[in-house]
Amino acid sequence: MNINKAPFMEELIQTCSNMYRLGWNERNGGNISMRLTQFEAAPYLDTAKSLRRISLHFDASPLANKLFLVTGTGKYFKNVERDPAHNLGLIRVAEDGVNADILWGFSDGGGPTSELPAHFSSHIARLSRDSSHRVIIHCHATNILAMTYTHPLDDRTFTRSLWQMSTECIVVFPEGVGVLPWMLCGTDEIGRATAEKMNDYRLCVWAQHGVFGAGSSLDETFGIIETAEKAAEIYMKTLNVSRLNTITDEQLRLLAEAFKADYRKDFLF
Questions:
Q1: 166-192 pLDDT per residue, tens
Q2: Closest Cα partner for 64 from 100, 36, 33?
Q3: Residue span of the structural domain in which 193 resides
Q4: Is pTM beyond 0.90 here?
Q5: Are residues 103 and 145 in the same domain?
Q6: Are residues 89 and 10 in the same domain?
Q7: Which sequence positions are flagged as catalytic?
């Protein structure tokens, strides 16, 4: 069977194209990783056959033997639809946790995104909280990025500002948003810091860089980022005008309770 016609592949390709058109993944900015089951992948390739082995340069032992569809390092989201095998790869974390086998893709000899430490650290963190979580998306959502230049960089106030911008926010991400200061990307350090935030949140903002999102599907993860980005857009559009109205803390409580959302009560006054 043609792996390009696999449901998981078609959905990932569509997601990459949508994110590029939204301006969230310019040039080679951003990356996606999605954990696959043996059942999903086996009809399309021999999951026991390794094309080549690569070093992960960090310990991903909790993910040993797991399969991941990953965007490639230096690859452009706009090109994924045209040539998936060049821009994506399917890898299996080796038994030792420090290597991985490429099972498909990266046809030009390339490899996974340089942000793989942050992705895998986040997968490990989210799996410890919810075994259904299998998608990590990193993108440069424009208004979230802009907001990190104008807003205090702490979880509570950043979350509260987003919640106040749109009625659905406290329902979509009731646990809030984690925020990191500027850090060097592509390093184990930012991977560990992101994973620490992912223990509590499904969204982690990288100041002056972008956002990491986690969820059980591409739709869910994309939707969480999309909702936060819309709220950040409203925040930025109203930043330099006199706001006559807002969603009050009491109204946020009413919303959360009406939708039975397990929200961070300590984030409200």
A1: 999 999 999 999 999 999 998 889 989
A2: 100
A3: 115-269
A4: yes
A5: no
A6: yes
A7: 115
